[in-house]
Amino acid sequence: MRACHVATLFLTKLGFQKGEWLYTASRSRLRRFPYSCAARFFGFLAVVNGEDGHARRKNDGTILWWLIGGVVVRWRLFFPTRRNLNSWRLDKKMKRSLVKLIDRRKENACGNEITKGAKDLLGLMIGASVTVDDMVEECKTFFFAGKHTTSNLLTWSTILLAMHPKWQVEAREEVAMVCGARGIPTKDDIVKLKTLTMIVNESLRLYPPTIATIRRAKADVELGNLKIPCGTELLIPILAVHHDQATWGSDANEFNPGRFSNGVSRAARHPFAFIPFGLGARTCVGQNLALLQTKLTLAIMLSRFSFKLALTYRHAPTVLMLLYPQYGAPIIFQPIATTATTVDC
């Protein structure tokens, strides 16, 4: 299973192995797994590992701001500000790299590359004769938007497990029971990890990677006493909906994965109160991949480590397009039955 291989490789490179070790990483280290996983899934690892890969990784926050920021205030993208000029330059550079990769993959298609194993997103789009411009835009959306949201979900889930050792123990016992001695879940195991799924859902509820989304009315519509004209754009405050006590109860601001024990639709007083990935036909297309990456990584981490917050941790969620821990997430990892190690996620 490709995702499982990437997750294991990621943890190994960080030093996450059984036995005594001492390793200190910056918070950006935890972001590398979604980055590498996305590159392998979508078929443009060469773009990430190329000569400009480091520069792109360093500036991908700027690109993300340009991709997502314009959704909220479109007009600001057209002014030649310093940030916009930098975004335009990076966007052109990225497009050139992606077009080169697509052309190279098309040439290799003559040698049956697509039919023999290039089953990543890029290979499938080439096989379906998708236009080059559309392929470039799809890759940008999946890669840069998906990478940040997934890394945030992984970060907050790790923080919450470190804060609540009881749930961490329950999740670890479940992973051991489902996965056995190997400690590495298969795709069939993932659906059996009910406790871990509840924890990830509660993390998404408390700290949704995207705090709001926008929808445009396709026709005149009435919402209660409000009349919404066709073409009106509505901002849906996901974070506020997820913390509404009238919907979630008096413990809406508390970590309680048990609320999802009967499924997502029964977790709140309204069946559609849980919307971390949106809802309906416009649900985030990368939802399943983000959940798969997160659950795989957490399952492997739980099977190898116990962990808790470092004394330097300061809880300060902050919004910078997405929801981040402002001062990082220093976590103390302790390999099972071995000595303790500090890692800043």
Automatic annotation (TrEMBL):
It is found in: Membrane. Heme binds at residue 284. One of its GO terms (cellular component) is membrane. Its main location: membrane. Its cofactor is heme. It is a single-pass membrane protein. The keyword Oxidoreductase applies. Keywords: Heme, Iron, Membrane, Metal-binding, Monooxygenase, Oxidoreductase, Transmembrane, Transmembrane helix. Pfam families: p450 (PF00067). One of its GO terms (molecular function) is iron ion binding. InterPro entries: Cyt_P450 (IPR001128), Cyt_P450_CS (IPR017972), Cyt_P450_E_grp-I (IPR002401), Cyt_P450_sf (IPR036396), Cytochrome_P450_Monooxygen (IPR050665). Belongs to the cytochrome P450 family. This is Cytochrome P450. It comes from Phaseolus angularis (Azuki bean).
